[in-house]
Design a protein that fits this description.
about 300 residues; two-stranded antiparallel sheet; mainly alpha; 5 strands; three-stranded antiparallel sheet; 12 helices; single chain
Amino acid sequence: MLISTLTPLAAEAALQVSAELRQRAADADALRAAHVERARYHADLARRRYLAVDPANRLVAGTLEAGWNTALRALNDAQAAYDQAREQHTGQLTDAQKDRIAQLVTDLPGIWNDPATPMRERKRIARLLLTDVTMTRTSDTITAHVRLAGGQHRTLTLPVPEPAWKIRQTKASTIAEIDKLLDHHTCAEIAGILRRRGLPNGEGRPFTRVMVQRVIRTYQLPSRRQRLLDAGLIPLDEMAALPGVSTSTVKIWYHAGIVGGQRYNDKAEVLYHPPGPNPPARHQGRRHDTQRPARNAT
């Protein structure tokens, strides 16, 4: 790995880090000093305005005096903050800080591979240690010629990363499992089975009914409805037409177990097994409250 070859550059990198820290401290000190100077300017301006006013004009004089007092308090606060910051941050690294920097730089691979190191810090390390990088690309490889700050050269050859859509693609084994489950289950049932088996989609997320439907459309898998039609099952209207009954009667027969069928979606819609040579009678399976009352004998 490239980062493991940077040990000869440890001293130079430590000096660069130290210089950067000193520069940051100097910049912060300059900002605090400028804030004090602005506060001093406003206090002096308020004082001159107060002294220039006619003492007889008490209202204006009182307002200007209050403004002067406010400016003086702001100056005192800015000066106190500046003095406190200079006491806490002298702008010079302590011996312990210098030793810590040297220790960190000599263990660059450990810092780089530490999960706690944020990406922005890795970018800063790269800016300190890399002079320039020249890259060339072919159809299947990327070659990077790297020049380090100490004059070393490295050449890295890496495969071209796969496109994002391919990385997020659902595994072929999972697609095959969905295809198999469609013979016996609806989309919501399949999603539940895949979740229980710990099979995620291409993005690593648990399957939902909508995700299963998307896989069916994307990979053009035969839908459960089409599979049942191909197996000889028929829709509700055709089933009702064969014995000449209403569709509601067919549903009653289905729930009573008189005719067979299978659900093909999560809306509980059913495709039916065609009736045999002896179809059910019209009155068969009729609910008690729907039976016609007997006529009274005359």
